[in-house]
Write a structure and sequence with these properties.
Rossmann fold, 15 strands, alpha/beta, five-stranded parallel sheet, six-stranded antiparallel sheet, 15% strand, 532 residues, Beta-Lactamase, 4 domains
């Protein structure tokens, strides 16, 4: 049973609070400052879990927690969907909820180490004001009804002021206000205007922290950035973060997937066209460079650009001058370029598929994005984000992972990275929900719901040996270079897949686990043509 910690002597109070006051002018990392704040809070109050959440738009984002499950840090609590959090934000002082309150608690099922569902407990909290504005909330939860009293509310009133001062110090020293402004500007970017949901780079692993450090470093510059990494690691999110931290953040960020277009349309998409330039060009049209004028242009899968387009791209990069397709008139654009690829562009240059001068123009600042398997426990933080998205979309009271499910997520190799994790969570939630009747208020995903052991064994027993066996059947003459051997193996696998699926390119692409457009481009480079 948690003790009634509010009964402290004056000297005990001073010994507890003085270190926090002494920390205010110190240059302390944001995470460490908040850890000390919550640690002190648990010393003063009889609680089993505490959390510090920042208000951002219509949601509360957990910045630090103590006693809650790890995936809580990845969640986004929409205020409108959580009446307790809404009440705390709207209250002029600390607020305590009755143990028998019927209002759903956002942390039900999220207390660390608790098996089963948490239904009845004691909780209270307070809103934090920083620089005269609502900044967020502090929340305290106890597993034992009646743990908190009116005396605790008085103590929390004083502690809330100290917490606000701590947050204010963190904002000034760690420039949180600038980061918040960048996020606001990013929210108004071209992608948000297109109606797509806002995403951020989440996690606390050393690999991600190093990436964020480099984003802060190069984001404020005008350098062209080459974002590299495996499929599904979040290269577009990195591009958005770079734009948000740049002086161009209040201008649009325009994106183009170079692999999603046939060669005949890439030039028009990039540089625009005039009426009559080609069949179907019924009016003048701006290209992506002109649309991004003054802002940022993000070219995904840049290694797929045809050689003919690369020459025109080089001219734009050198002088900012471009001509629309079919026009003699020149247009000047001022664009910051960010490109991404999962290919080795240096190898593409050696293979003659990418111009060397373009490569050097694009790789001014290479920025590798770590694979999910290199980010340790970040997988749980990201899982929390996707769980909260699914909880909100499906109207559930709570959505959580049990211990075995968390262990399964940590043990899996994630060949598809963050995108694979997102799809896995969405699929698993639907399957688990369909198996439970009646519909539960709080849904707990188990390791069997995730099915990672089965997926891993299938990937090991089917895909890898099949590909290896197919590759082993390729008759490779002696004396081939590594590149020539790889191309011969690729040609054999593509032809084998097309033959197995009756020259159906879409089915062959699925069998090879690649996008159809990418398969067509690969086949073209290998000298394989559609024979239908």
């Amino acid at each position: 049973m948690t003790s009634n910690k509010v009964k402290l002597t004056t000297s005990e109070w001073l010994r507890t609070l003085v270190p926090l006051v002494a920390d205010l002018p110190q240059d302390i990392a944001e995470a460490e400052r908040y850890r000390r704040l919550l640690q002190t809070l648990r010393t003063l109050f009889p609680c089993d879990a505490v959390a510090l959440l920042r208000l951002e738009g219509d949601s509360l984002l957990p910045l630090a927690t103590d006693g809650l499950s790890r995936d809580t840090l990845g969640r986004r609590f929409k205020v409108a969907e959580h009446p307790r959090l809404s009440a705390l934000l709207g209250s002029a002082g600390p607020l305590r909820f009755a143990p028998d309150s019927t209002l759903p608690d956002p942390y039900d099922g999220l207390i660390e180490g608790l098996h089963g569902h948490l239904e009845v407990h004691d909780c209270m909290g307070c809103a934090l004001q920083v620089e005269g504005k609502a900044w967020g909330v502090l929340t305290l939860d106890s597993l034992h009804p009646g743990s908190f009293s009116d005396a605790h509310l008085d103590v929390l009133q004083a502690f809330g002021s100290l917490a606000s001062a701590t947050v204010g110090a963190a904002m000034r020293i760690n420039r949180l206000s600038q980061l918040a402004q960048s996020e606001h500007l990013r929210a108004e970017s071209y992608k948000r205007a297109a109606g797509q949901p806002e995403r951020a780079l989440l996690g606390q692993s050393p690999a991600l922290k190093q990436l964020l450090k480099e984003i802060d470093l190069v984001g404020a510059s005008e350098l062209t950035v080459l974002v590299t990494g495996e499929t599904g690691v979040g290269k577009e999110l990195v591009a958005q973060a770079l734009h948000a931290r740049s002086p161009r953040a209040d201008r649009p960020m325009v994106s183009l997937n170079c692999a999603a277009l046939p060669d005949t349309l890439v030039e028009s998409e990039l540089f625009g066209h005039v009426r009559g330039a080609f069949t179907g060009a019924v009016s003048d049209r701006q290209g992506k460079f002109e649309l991004a004028d003054g802002g940022t242009l993000f070219l995904d899968e840049v290694g797929e650009l045809p050689l003919a387009v690369q020459a025109k791209l080089l001219r734009v990069l050198q002088s900012g001058q471009l001509q629309r397709l079919g026009s003699d008139r020149e247009h000047h654009v001022d664009v910051r370029l960010i490109v991404a690829t999962n290919r080795d562009l240096a190898a593409e240059v050696r293979a003659g598929r990418l111009r060397a001068d373009i490569y050097h123009r694009l790789s001014v600042y290479p920025l590798p994005v770590p694979a999910l398997r290199e980010r340790g426990r970040d997988v749980l933080v990201l899982s929390g984000f996707f769980l909260e998205e699914n909880r909100s979309r499906l109207g559930l009271g709570g959505l959580r992972l049990d211990h075995d499910a968390q262990a399964a997520l940590l043990a899996y190799g994630w060949p598809g990275n963050v995108r694979e994790l997102e799809h896995l969570i969405g699929r698993s939630v639907l399957k688990a929900l369909g198996r439970q009747q009646p519909r539960p208020r709080i849904l707990t995903l188990t390791a069997s719901d995730l099915g990672l052991m089965e997926a891993g064994s299938q990937a090991t027993s089917t895909h890898v040996p099949a590909a290896a066996a197919a590759g082993a059947q390729v008759p490779l003459p002696p004396g081939l270079s590594l590149r020539q051997a790889v191309e011969a193996t690729e040609r054999h696998l593509v032809l084998q897949a097309l033959e197995a699926h009756g020259q159906n390119w879409a089915q062959a692409a699925r069998a090879l686990q690649m996008d159809r457009a990418n398969l067509v481009r690969l086949a073209k480079r290998l000298g394989i043509h559609d024979t239908r």
